[in-house]
Amino acid sequence: MTWEEFQRIQTRRSFFRQCACGVGTAALAHLLGLEGRTLAAILPRDNPLAPKQPHFAPRAKNVIFMFMEGGPSQIDLFDPKPALQKYHGQSLPESLTKDLQLAFIKPTAAVLASPRVFKPAGQCGMELSDWLPHLATVADDICLVRSMHTDAFNHHPGQLLLFTGSTQFGRPTLGAWVVYGLGSESQNLPGFVVLTSGVGTSGGATNFSSGFLPSHYQGVLFRSQGDPILYLSNPPGVTRELQRASLDALRDLNEERLQATGDMEIASRIAAYELAFRMQMAAPELLDFSDEPAHIREMYGVDKEPTRPFAVNCLLARRLVERGVRFVMLMHASWDDHSELNKKLKRNCDITDQPAAALIRDLKQRGLLEETLVIWGGEFGRTPLAEIRKPEEADNAGRDHHPMAYSMWLAGGGIKGGQVVGKTDDLGLKIVEDPIHVHDLQATILHCLGFDHTRLTYRHMGRDFRLTDVAGHVVKKLLA
Amino acid sequence: MYFRLHEPRILLSWKVESGYNRAKLMSWARRYSILVGCSLGVGAMVLASSLGSAAEPALPPPARERIDFARHVEPIFKAKCYACHGPAQQMNGLRLDQREAALAGGYSGAAIKPGDSAGSLLVRMVAGLEKGKIMPPAGPRLSPKEIGILRAWIDQGAVWPESSAPVATSKPAVAHWAFRPPVKRDPPAVRQRAWVRNPIDAFILARLEAEGIQPSPEAPRTTLIRRLSLDLIGLPPTPAEVDEFLTDNRPDAYERLVDRLLASPHFGEKWARHWLDLAHYADSDGYEKDLPRPHAWRWRHWVIEALNRDMPFDQFTIEQIAGDLLPGATVEQKVATGFLRNTLTNREAGVDREETRLEQLVTRVNTVGTTWLGLTVGCAQCHDHKYDPITQREYYQLLAYFERAEEDEIDAPLPGEIGPYLRALPDYRRKRQELLTQYNIPALQAEWERNLRDAAANPGRRLDWDFQFTSFRVMVDAGEKMLHTPLEERSERHQRRLTDYFIRNPGPDFGKDKELMGKLKELREKLDKLDAEFPALSQAPVLVENPRPPKTYVRVRGDYRRKGVAVEPRPITWLLPAPNDAPPNRLTLARWLVSRDNPLTARVAVNRIWQELFGRGLVLTSEDFGTQGERPSHPELLDWLAVEFMDRGWSIKQTIRLIVTSATYRQSSNARPELESRDPDNRLLARQSRLRLQAELIRDSALAVSGLLNPEIGGRSIRPPQPADLEKLGYANSVKWPESQGKDRYRRGVYIHFQRTVPYPQLMNFDAPDANVACSRRRRSNTPLQALNLLNDPVFFEAAIALADRVLREAPPRTEARLEYAFRLCLARSPSPRERERLMRFFNEQLDLMKADAKAAALYPAAGGADPAEGAAWTAVSRVLLNLDEFITRE
């Protein structure tokens, strides 16, 4: 479908959808007279955000992507490499390091063995770091991938590749593709919501942009301070009653103009204002956690530091999914530990481990995990080699970017939990089993949602584009 | 302890020798990795040493017999190679069905080296000796015997008889409409001649008559003046301007209005916006760090001025692509090259500089391709264009023009800046030098520079300095060059840049000296103060020729790391040959673009003007005139306009005048239900289009009608208020948003500072492009976020209050008259009785409520010093008016 066709259909469709929801029935009557057609003749089966059927029966309906920006260290969290101990502090031979794409360090950098202790977790015995004690309690629900790889070794390009399938700008992101393909179940919330904690990300808004897809599909950032959605609150002094009265006047006047000009775009405008008003009503209820029992709040760590910011977002993610929001992206930044790895990594684990595990547990106990695909990971991993910026300071060491082999985990709809997929060599430099490129991950995510990734396309600049560019294979091993 | 380990390729090739099927290759690849896994064991060492020189045996031996090309070689090529390297397509530039082409090789260089089969890429590819690849990539591979035949043929001199090249050599004739020069035909004859105001109308009407469709009546005069004002200067007309037009009974009142608007200095602001979209103008670097670009505005200023002066489009083009190369180039002509400086810069400390550099060149080529040629040349970065006849080689030939240039900054004073600057300069230099000397900077900086140079020369020696150097290199453009230029040869600008950087980043050694750090901070503050007091010159980012340009190579599959064959600057010659004697520089490219014989440039340019005035181009895909683009709705009109545009000296204003004075433009935009199914997209133009305003114009309109607008033209960017902490979305809190103060808050949208990673939300909500790639046409979406933005954004609420205030001050003190005035301010027309009644009802309800609830009324800032309840009620009315669909729409 081209943008123009889309736009044309959408104008009518979104209007009639809103009409069907009890808004602007007067306008509908006008319109029917105006167009001289019956409702059934024009009323569409779908509209840009109405639920749509994918290519085949989906395993998951919703996605929660916990984007750990900056590249968490798989060496210290997910992929134990005891062999590194032996070479700690030494350089590796050139033949082993010559293919590495390193952002900061030289190939001669010394090996940095992880001080972490890894223990088998769950029935499956998956080895996880002692800094992920909470994740260990849901090990049987997650599928740990130790063989992710990507092409980009700098943050912004890496994030573009992870979310848009290309390091070029202007492509739609994963969340936008999913909402484009599936629509949204929510009548009064956006289909694609973005939540952030920590500092800003390298990719900024490009990580949740709709690119060349219509802007209905762009991620809507819920802010942690002030209005959750930009401009959600009325200006000071404008009460809900005044807002309603204003919207009523606005609707009547817009209907006058609709009658005078016959421009269906005005009908869409009326509908958009009504949806905006419903968002104003729905968002406070969404954000009001007072109906969450104490044990749930405790499980996430909503009321304590340092878990609070990420816990609030995890709990919010569950509430969004419950309310029909299709794609929730939680961004936590930054895991870019070039220095002081031990200190910074610990801190990020302390913030995120408990809430992330609680989210899995909570979704599961509500029966939502089966239909929600959860993904945790960053744009690349970190080197087994040390990066040392201040040689004189003990514990200053960090790790550089490592695109060739890193870890992520997935859980929920369509994913086979309690397993480890992929293997890296003894030094964690390269993948030796089941390499999974980010394009493969994207293809697999779309597969779980019922899409053949090669067929979810959009025509732009004379060709059909897709999330996986010209690559990507569904990784069967990940699937339940 | 060091080990020498084998390379994967060697192991693979060793295995290849004994029958190379894919499964075996894979198993060996895995085995190799396992070896790496236990790489530090002795076994691997032994294995490695035993395989040390095993490269050559991988190849099957050459056949022993004498090889005949036609009998032995050609059948192999035909069966296994021609599909991708034959007449239909030439992947990676290689063509094996023609002698000369085959011997010349592809983008990776020569494929066949006569006499050296083992060194010939052709043989290495079919034998799978090149990392990660084997040819053919699918289907049956070449057998060892076949490879042996190829080897023998090459070793025997690769004899290729002339007669064995039966295939046609020339490229198929270019048949696509847009690649043929436009032809100006006489406007067609029409029956309703009275309707025709100028030749445009004849083309439109002829088609309508053929379809049996009547054009729409002319729009009411209030609609016309509002349409013209919004289209030409991007601001709504004032009630006084409307009255003047309504009462002007002269026959040419409309044309006079057009001329007044074309002469307005706001014209440049409106028409610059579309050009900025194409150039993907922004006020920050983009990518992670997204540093501000404090001088980017200078080029925008140039664009606004050039458009206001109606600089001919050919000159407009030449100056922006190659202004610096014009004989005796003026400062303004150099500033024009800022068009090409809107490429993104990635300053992540770990970036590969070469990758960033190449990306910028690629963006320049793609932007020029979209902007002037209306072609998706970018497709040919990685491979020959799949749909249009642009080869990858041609792509890099275009890129070569830009690879000969480098970035620079120049003094670009605006009028009035030079005098005060020169008067103060000696004093400034003296004061600055005194401060630097006082803090011993020359000596400290010299030491710092030595350390940096040392780190550059000896990476890995001092890790802290390695890091310092890496950061320096990405943060200071051309910093390495400055660093290696001896002090006495450095320009004052460069020396100052280095000193300023040093004072802020004194490096790891000085960094430990607490006292010194304190001193440097003190110095920074003093220098900042000095700079603030000193009258500075505006600066401009420009492009200049590089005296020692690097060679340009085709990049195999677009990968910056894989250099293919070298190429020279050359335009796309099948489109239009380049003049023989012209130097291979940007000026030649620019002149080629605006040559009268270039079939694309004029068409693409007039189509965009049309798009601005009708909401869609005659060619809908204004960014793509190639074979995948949409065909023109009125091809003869497009050609007529293109030639007319050139005939009128490439005058943008005259072309706009021609279009807006047509009867076609003046039609009503009301929907035509009877045409809904026949012409849903209004391609036939039996009416005007009703168009939602662009993001910037929505802001401008609200500011204008409320009287808040600061009409100053040109100059620096502004940062209007935005929700607190929004900028924190930027990387690691590095983005700052110091809100503009005073009148600057109320400047037009075109001046809003565009921070690429955290753009101003109102712009994005209303479909402004993200400034990362060229944007030729914007979307017009219709979303609830837009509703929230207009309803609740403090900027728009402030406008509502100001509008109420203005109405109370300026209108006669009767509710009816006030309502009329407010309505006319916003929409240029008077309300209908029903509209009047509805607004009156709303006003009275609000007035009653506010009177009853003094507390509620008091929450509104008092408008117009009136009674608070009345002010509040008028604010509510104003807010409704500013949210009307019609208010943000040009009808």
Structure description:
The complex is a heterodimer of chains A (480) and B (891). Chain A has helices at 3-20, 25-35, 39-42, 74-77, 83-87, 94-97, 133-136, 155-164, 174-182, 240-261, 264-287, 294-300, 308-322, 341-365, 438-448, and strands at 62-69, 118-121, 126-129, 142-149, 192-198, 220-222, 327-333, 372-377, 381-387, 398-402, 406-412, 419-421, 423-424, 431-433, 436-437, 457-460, 463-466. With 480 residues, chain A is of the alpha/beta class. Chain A has one domain. In chain A, strands 1, 4, 5, 6, 7, 8, 11, 12 and 15 form a nine-stranded mixed beta sheet that branches. Chain A has a two-stranded antiparallel sheet with strand order 2-3. Chain A has a two-stranded antiparallel sheet with strand order 9-10. In chain A, strand 2 and strand 3 form a beta hairpin. The relative contact order of chain A is 0.20. Chain B has 891 residues and is mostly helical. The chains are: A alpha/beta (480), B mainly alpha (891). The interface between A and B is large, with 109 and 116 residues.
Strand content of chain A: 15-25%
Count of individual domains of chain A:
1
- Kindly state the number of beta strands of chain A: 17
Structure classification of chain A: alpha/beta
Q: Give the termini distance of chain A in whole angstroms.
A: 33 Å
Helix percentage of chain A: 25-40%
The number of helical segments of chain B is 38
- Radius of gyration of chain B in whole Å, from Cα? 34 Å
Distance between the termini of chain B: 78 Å
Biggest interface, chains and residues, is:
A-B, 109 and 116 residues
Q: What is the CA-atom radius of gyration of chain A, in angstroms?
A: 24 Å
Mean pLDDT of chain A: 88
- List unreliable stretches of 5+ residues of chain A: 13-46
Task: Specify the helix fraction band of chain B.
Answer: 40-55%
Q: What structural class is derived from the secondary structure elements of chain B?
A: mainly alpha
Low-pLDDT windows of residues of chain B: 1-57, 165-170
